[in-house]
């Protein structure tokens, strides 16, 4: 059963006999899709419940292949990470996210911020100074302060000293940082306080049963308290109903993301959503 929101599971298509065959096929098709810029992005609102407005959104990659149909980002990101395609893929994603953010914000009175997922693999061989997001944000006229880079904790575990240096310089450039899927890995409290994250994203797997499971409730409560002590803001992921929202709100988490507000939408539907749900 898929309980863990932070983990990705391989999909098995009967027609392709082995996982390796599917992996290989996806790798070839993905290279073309990147080349032809056929990877798209959907945007999911993150609501600031203190103001009741959408203050930010998360960009989520989408790809539908003619033959294979929709392929989950979990699956194709993993293939990209194992094949070097993550670099051109991520470049395309960041470029598209920033240009669509410009479009979204030009339709709004108050600009919103964007969260972009980055793979730890991208930062293995490069410094923050070499990250293309610097040039892209300048070229597109999007200040770094509007951009949050989301990373999972596997990034910090490989080489913590290197990770701290990299994160610190990304922050020096003005970017915000979010620790994604928090709670699914191994970060300890003492560990976490060394890293300059602005946001901590509570993994969906803890939110799902928060209304029925005392353990999950206690865990989320503890995570929110811990974030407060460390001076980090919390985002609860995967909030699907009113009851979950009320509990999380009562625990003091201010930023909410999930189907309760909206599924991820393409840029034009996202603009419509913002105008309808939050008229000026
Ligand atoms: P993530 O970063 O944890 O993204 C949140 C996932 O939870 C998204 O799945 C989103 O659609 C889903 N979600 C949000 N609210 C709800 C809810 O209320 N209920 C349920 N059931 N699900 C909800 P998605 O879009 O399939 O993405 C899966 C993962 O793929 C992401 O997890 C992220 O790890 C990766 N990913 C997606 N886009 C990118 C990207 O552009 N770059 C990189 N490196 N990874 C990406
Ligand atoms: Ca997740
Ligand atoms: Ca994320
Ligand atoms: Ca997440």
Automatic annotation (TrEMBL):
Domain EAL: 23-278
Domain of life: Bacteria
Protein name per its UniProtKB record: Sensory box sensor/GGDEF/EAL domain protein
Full-sequence range covered: 453 to 732 of 735
């Amino acid at each position: 059963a898929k309980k863990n929101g932070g983990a990705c599971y391989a999909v098995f298509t009967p027609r392709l006999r082995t996982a390796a065959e599917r992996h290989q096929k996806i790798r070839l098709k993905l290279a073309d899709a990147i080349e032809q810029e056929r990877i798209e992005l959907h945007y999911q609102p993150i609501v600031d419940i203190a103001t009741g407005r959408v203050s930010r959104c998360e960009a989520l990659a989408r790809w539908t292949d003619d033959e294979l149909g929709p392929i989950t980002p979990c699956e194709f990101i993993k293939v990209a990470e194992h094949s070097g395609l993550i670099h051109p893929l991520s470049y395309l994603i960041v470029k598209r996210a920033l240009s669509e953010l410009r479009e979204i914000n030009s339709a709004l009175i108050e600009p919103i911020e964007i969260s972009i997922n980055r793979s730890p693999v991208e930062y293995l061989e490069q410094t923050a100074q070499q990250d293309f997001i610097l040039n892209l944000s300048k070229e597109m006229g999007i200040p770094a302060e509007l951009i949050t880079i989301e990373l999972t904790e596997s990034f910090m575990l490989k080489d913590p000293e290197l990770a701290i240096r990299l994160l610190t310089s990304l922050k020096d450039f003005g970017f915000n940082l979010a620790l994604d899927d928090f709670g699914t890995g191994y970060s300890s409290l003492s560990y976490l306080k060394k890293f300059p994250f602005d946001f901590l994203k509570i993994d969906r797997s803890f939110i799902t049963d928060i209304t029925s499971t005392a353990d999950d409730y206690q865990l989320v409560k503890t995570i929110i308290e811990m974030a407060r002590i460390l001076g980090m803001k919390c985002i609860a992921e995967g909030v699907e109903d009113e009851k979950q929202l009320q509990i999380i709100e009562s625990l003091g988490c201010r930023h909410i993301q999930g189907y309760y507000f909206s599924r991820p939408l393409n840029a034009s539907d996202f603009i419509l959503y913002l105008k309808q749900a939050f008229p000026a």
